[in-house]
């Protein structure tokens, strides 16, 4: 009995070691990472909504947005396909950009310490960095 328990324990430890080794070799290369996204309406001043989700290793922002919308009913969005630049983010949670009103959803990345950058590509091309804080800001152009 004692032997059986010891054998089980050794097998379990072996698995543990194997798992640690496996995740070690993967660390920083293929692990998904966590990012946060804030939906900020600077025109109506509706309260911000902040969400946490994951991205695949070097996955595009659009993928993380899709994953979030599948898991959280509080985040819905639509894109319009552009032949040259891919998906244009048109609507978030029912709020649509409008050419007549000159409104749109701007894509921003908060690098911390008040350093907010404006990516020079859209949601289909931007690859978030681990722990990125993405801001979707509804604003005027
Ligand atoms: C004007 C403009 C805008 C205006 C468009 C308003 C309007 N309805 O006219 C506004 C302010 C909305 C805009 C927004 C953005 N833009 Co812009 N925009 C331009 C600009 C200066 C001119 C486009 C134009 O009028 N072309 C002439 C018309 C006749 O051609 P068109 O095909 O009909 O143009 C349409 C597309 O360009 C589209 N569009 C504009 N920007 C973007 C961005 C993306 C990702 C997509 C899919 C479509 C798109 O809107 C135009 C009107 O419908 C170009 C640079 C350039 N000089 O071309 C950048 C440009 C197209 N934009 C760019 C970017 C990155 C953005 C943003 C992602 C910036 C951000 N970080 O928020 C956002 C889009 C966010 C979102 N909601 O998805 C990049 C795209 C590069 C890329 N490979 O993704 C460009 C090339 C500028 C750059 N940085 O080099 N943009
Ligand atoms: C909403 O988010 C934006 C962008 O992060 C920030 O500047 C603003 O202060 C926030 N507003 C509130 C009420 O928290
Ligand atoms: C955009 O705004 C204009 C002016 O307020 C309005 O007439 C139009 O219906 C709006 N377009 C869309 C697609 O909502
Ligand atoms: C802000 O972030 C950008 C991109 O990471 C970096 O190039 C720039 O030096 C930063 N600016 C400041 C003031 O930290």
TrEMBL record:
| Record's signal peptide | 1-27
Q: Which domain of life is it from?
A: Eukaryota
Q: Keywords for this entry?
A: Signal
- State the organism of origin: Paramormyrops kingsleyae
Q: Which Pfam families match?
A: DUF4430 (PF14478)
Any one Gene Ontology BP term: cobalamin transport
Any one GO CC term of the record: extracellular space
Q: What is this protein called?
A: Transcobalamin-1-like
């Amino acid at each position: 009995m004692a032997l059986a328990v010891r054998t089980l324990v050794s097998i379990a430890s072996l698995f543990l070691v194997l798992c640690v080794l496996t995740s070690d070799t993967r660390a920083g290369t293929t692990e998904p990472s966590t990012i946060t996204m804030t939906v900020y309406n600077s025109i109506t001043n509706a309260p911000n909504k902040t969400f946490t989700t994951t991205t695949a290793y070097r996955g595009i922002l659009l993928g993380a947005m899709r994953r979030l919308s599948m898991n959280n009913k509080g985040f819905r969005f639509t894109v319009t396909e552009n032949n040259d630049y891919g998906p244009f983010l048109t609507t978030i949670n029912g709020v649509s950009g409008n050419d007549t009103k000159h409104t749109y959803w701007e894509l921003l990345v908060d690098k911390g310490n008040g350093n907010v950058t404006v990516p020079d590509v859209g949601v289909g091309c931007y690859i978030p960095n681990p722990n990125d804080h993405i801001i979707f800001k509804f604003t005027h152009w």
